[in-house]
Description:
The chain starts with 13 loop residues before the first helix and ends with a helix. 58% of the residues lie in helices and 3% in strands. The protein is built from 14 helices and 4 strands. By secondary structure, the protein is an all-alpha fold.
Amino acid sequence: MTVQAEETTAPVDLAAAERQYEEAYRRWWKPLTYFIYSRLDQRHVSYAEDIAADTFVELWTKFAARGKDIQFPWGLLCHMGRQRIGDFYGRLASIRELAIDFSDPLNRDVEAGHSYATDQPEAAILAAELNDALEVMADLSKKWREAHTKTSMYRSRLEGGRFHMRPETRTATKQRVEQLTRESDQLLIDFRESCARVGELRRDLEAAGGPNWQSSTGMPSTAMRNWTKDKGTMSEPTRTHCDDGHELTLENTLFTPKGAKRCRTCMEASWRASRAAKPAMPKVPGPRKPRKPSEHAIPEEKIQQARELLKNPDLSIRQVAAMVGLNRSSMCERIPDLDQLRDVDRKRIVPVSDELLEKAVSLLTDPDHPRSVRSVCAELGFSNVTLYNRVPNLPALRAQAREKRRALAGAVR
């Protein structure tokens, strides 16, 4: 009879685990929060720090507290952060009722999320229409804010001093601004009409529901919001100027999804100040270090083969590099006299008899049987470069042949 020994775990050095955990926390807290923030919907970005905190708690309980060595904390935190984001949206999916809070440019709240008993069919129909109207309003709100932002971006290119445009570019940008302005104005009209439609449906819904109407949870729908509206003076509907005194006109205001307003002039000034405060890149002192030789040296046989192929005027440098199996930049680096080699080769005139040249010209200028220069040169046994060098007026002769061919074709018709 054999008795299996009980498994014993080694004691955990909590002091070392705490030091390792604190080092990871100080190093990766802000990057992880931004990593989670960039993957959340705009309505849920306020939960980024909570999800990051849950991720670090899991890092402590499952790894550091158990004595496991954390070799790659950033990759591990990203993996666990994605899982926590999935759990977060899984919990939100359990809420089946529609609970949305939107705001128009004047920050007028519109709330929804009410369900009604089966003995009130007219209220149920109005609730369904209200939900559809809210979806339309949400879509128009997003489209208008995107169009308004894009219009302001193009307008700043014309008015600001950051861009130096050519005259044709400035004209095209002005036309683009006019087009975007028309689209933005039409979207704003449609959005306000959808807001009015939502208000009418809410009025009819509360009138049809009577004194006994209630939300789907028995509580006001504001308790089911996933985010709260921004507080502060910039969210007040009656605010006409920012803290620095700039007028909050439609063109000078950025509207956020949460109903707040931001001054574009202040944003531009903040951008310029941060850009001016950014330190310049330090210059590297001394001469530039030479490049290290490649580990995989190119055989000398390939270089000689490339030099022989480069003497052929019908082959380009790219074709020679492909035939030899080299990179074009590597071949140019290993053959420093490549340009001179190609220039000498281009100027080289192959001795060709005058009879062959006359035959080539007659074939190329025949209006009844048009042929290409490459096919004629291949048939007669010399290159097209030689033909162009020996017959400089060949393009003019071919143009005259084309005119004769067109004239003959017109006479036949």
